[in-house]
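All the exercises in this workshop are built on plain-text protein records. Sequence and backbone structure share a record, each on its own labelled line. The structure tokens are whole numbers drawn from a learned vocabulary of backbone shapes. The record below serves as our worked example for the rest of this section.
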Amino acid sequence: MKWFMILLLLVTTGCSIPVPDLDVVFGPPEIPQANVPKSCRQHNWSQGSMMNGSCTHASMMSLFRWQCQPKLADWWGKNHGGGEEPESLTRQLDKAGIDYANTFNKADIEFLEWACRTRRGCAVAIYGRKHMVCLVGLTADYAILLDNNDTSNFIYVPRTTFINEWLWSDSWAITTVYAPPPPKTKH
């Protein structure tokens, strides 16, 4: 608060001083940006006679929990399962009245950057849209993933490798637009 008051005073009086680098003052930003704790990570499950995985729903449940919606995550898991396509998932979200943002077949890397920068994270299709995981961080060098088949650790993938895989998977990404918890570091 003291820095803010000093800065406000100097700006309103016309003085010009260099603004300190926020990373120096507050420390580096949290990586991954959507630092989903282990207790909020949803493991994939099988459903139906063909034993289809529920990776899309598991990813959405992790995002719901991360964005402070644990009851919604539990409800979602009890009422949804099996494989999904972009259209079927958005229909279900619309029917449930859940706010979301998504991109499909647009190669919208800015969407991924926005989802990570705002600390929401997003569910992303990989393996030719045969699997969905959570993108929880995106740096200049790496994409940081949370795979619902093994939620024990984050997976660091070279950014270019991930982007190419995501583009090959029709560049499908989706996130809910609730507020995530504040960062662990003050930034």
User: Anything to note?
Assistant: Strands lie at 46-47, 52-53, 100-103, 122-126, 131-138, 142-146, 155-158, 173-176. The CA atoms of residues 22 and 44 lie 39 Å apart. The longest helix spans residues 55-66.
